[in-house]
Amino acid sequence: MTRDALLDAARRAVRAAGGEALARAVSERSVTARLARSQPTQATDLQRARVEVLCVRDGHTGLAIASRTDDDALAAAARRAHDAALAAAHAGPGDYPGLPEPAPARGHDGFDVATAALDPGQTGGALAAALEVAEVRGVELAGTWTAGAVTEAIASSRGLEAVDAVTDAQFKAVAQAPDGLRGYAARTAVAAGAIDAAAVAAEAADKATPPPAAPVDPLGGAGTAELPVVLGPDAVADLLQMLGVLAFDGRAWAEGRSALSDRLGERVAAPNISLSDSVRFPGTLPHAFDPEGTPKGPVPLIQDGVAHRVVHDVRSAARAGGGATSTGHAISPGGAVQGPIPRNLVLAGGGAADEAELMAPVERGLYVTRLWYVNPVRSKETLITGVTREGTFLIEDGRLAAPVRDVRFTDSVLRLLSTTQALSRRPRLVGTTDFYGPRFAYGVVCPALRADGFRLTGVASPGV
Amino acid sequence: MLDALVDLMDAAGGRCAYADARWVDHSHEALTVVDGAIESVDIVDEEGVGVRVRVDGAWSFAATQTLSREGLQEALARALALAEAEPRRPAPTPLAPVAPARGSWRSPCAIDPFGVALEEKLALLLAADEAMAGDPRLGRRGAFCVAERAVKAFASTEGAACEQSVVECGAGMVAVAVADDDLQLRSYPSGHGGDVAQAGWEHVVGLDLPAHGAEVADEAVALLTAPPCPEGTMTVVIDSEQVALQLHESIGHALELDRMLGYEAAYAGTSFVRPEDLGALRYGSDALNVTADAVLPGALGTYGWDDEGVAGQRTALVVEGRLVGALSSRETAGAVGLEASSGAMRADGFARQPLVRMPNVSLEPGDGGTLADLVAGVDDGLYLQTNRSWSIDDRRLQFQFTTQLAREIKGGELGGLRRNALYAGHTPRFWSGLDAVGSPSAQQVHSFTKCGKGEPGQFAHVSHATPPARFRDVDVRAR
Lengths: 464, 479
Prior knowledge:
Number of strands of chain A: 21
Low-confidence stretches of chain B: none
Number of domains of chain A: 2
Radius of gyration of chain B: 23 Å
Distance between the termini of chain B: 54 Å
Number of helices of chain A: 10
Mean pLDDT of chain B: 96
Largest interface: A-B, 95 and 85 residues
Strand content of chain A: 35-45%
Number of helices of chain B: 10
Oligomer: heterodimer
Shape of chain B: globular
Structural class of chain B: alpha+beta
Strand content of chain B: 35-45%
Largest sheet of chain A: 9 strands, mixed
């Protein structure tokens, strides 16, 4: 659907709803192609649209979503949203403070015309280039190429009218060497043309084919261990994405459930840690406004190691009080029950030229490419657990020495950030979405870092 | 709509080795109450068609919401164009044969949840929330209910033409207690997403949320001051729900044949189980008997046919500790020479292509009696109840779970409350420690509605029938 058609649908939905209402019309087109065992397996071409109608009645919200944009479908959705809000209002006044007043959203460079064309030939070409590298390097390749274009239009009874369009593309590769070692690499960008699938495959192959050495157990048979660690950008992004949920959700903060409840203004990380949500930082995946129509702008979260702010949607800001306003981080119109979440985290880079320089002072430690199945253990401590995957190495005397059996870690994100000794100079975008539900691409821009005392609590798979 | 799909498949014949098409008309309703206020009333209606084609050995798929004849033809053309663009298409593996699915199937539903007034549902949730209220240490309390209806039609180039209609309904509640750096929670009737069944509103009424509110809140607050969980290697009795998640993560996913074959290596991962392990691998103790059951009444992984037209069925996976079966599709079954698919291909709505997803994978009851009987057999150990968090590696071998609540077991009896219980293990070693399984009367069905897999991501709904069980030599930690 065109921008004009989407805005027209949003306007018609607001009119159909009557009273205080907001409508968000979104269209998605995307292509995803998967590889396994060096062969194409599944490819998916999606074209879908939806209209979300939010009605506000006496402080209560009702949200209805339709997959058609004709008048009948929009009227039905508006009626359901109205009825839902009215049913809630029967129990007494609610605490939703009302839709935000219109405010101009800044533009961004998050749309690429060529990517939006979603040429199947480009998809096939990317896979072919990656497979060629794998063949030359003697590794088996699994991977995923995906590109998408999302356009959204939003209108409200307060007079808000805005349109945004974004594109995203990602290629990730898992190479497996004949001895079973695996390596991972991935790149995400606004433009598909910015992703060199062959280079990504080569990076994955490099990790799967280190100089010959038998995989080692970094725990040495013990149940737990603490080692210096160099975390690659993909691993850092996994940690920060989880921190975004555990620490910066303004709703949880207001309810005392956040790791930063009563801790804003305190030192929570090393002085070299400056973390923000910066929707227009170079290399990120920009969005102009959130699903409530609030323009997105930069929010400093941790500055020089000191906890600074949390993020809000309309409802969480009202609950927080003290003059808090939405920072443009709603997950859905009316706010999601789980609260607002930062989607454009940026960790400032440090002084190390590259990962090799980060490893140089490490006598014995770990290098971790990526993490997997990360979940909270004790959320207020930001204590999480997960395993390493596809590219874990022992560092000895400042260099990669041997592949390592994948390990489980159980550690606090804020503790790791408190012991961060150095960061690499150039952060890069790590895509952190798996595209469940409607397409909404987001990611973390971050460098590699070196921290002390990474807490290992078990050996996972054999690392092969 | 079925006729349109059949016509489309007639048009697809000869243009690819195989094709199928699914129409899904899906409705979803979610109501949430938080801290005495109605937080959200969300309603979703979505309808569309997904067309899947097989060219050589690779699958391509296109989804559309344009349901006219032209719209469906255009989706077919897009799927074929995508297939044509793929490099190095593999030689086709024969699909395991299946008789064309014909007819219709409907899940049980006594009271249509979409026919119940929103006010009535909200009143129930407000009553449940109120029953948890009172203690200032509660940082949040909440109650929710969900209802889903999916009407589906399916046709294939092999002559399948069938229809299914499924209604799901469920509810749950949670209390979160906070103090300084600690946060404890209790929930009912499960740790995640409440209890959902293929049933109508009668299922929610039967859960009787308000009656459990006080206990949920009291336990959450009590956990704040409970002693930490003891650490060490010990005997544990695990409640039915945590056994369900343990089974889901370390047996259900590990036995998905696409993972075993490496097809999911780029995302969800592979499996420590190899195809050649079928019939040979010792998965656990003699007490371990596991069945995939897509005909379990009222369970979320129950269906007339899977999403490639294979009838729902029961499949033995582990018998007396020995691996005997796997979860398969027509393609994966054909790849390893199985005579037939186990009927485990399912898709999340019209806009995703089917993947191997577990149906209801259940632990067969044993002769261990009731929960009290299992506890009675422990002199010094721990009782673990209700999942709080979970993590397992990409081969489904090394796991670590925490539970909301633990109680000491001393002299065969349950003792005091313990907080922050965490246990870890390696899959076959852990299941080899399975010492006793509760009897049929102790078996319960538990649901999960956020089982993720695939690219683009897909959520599957599934249930597990599990009794409580006792395990020896388990590694228990406080963190």
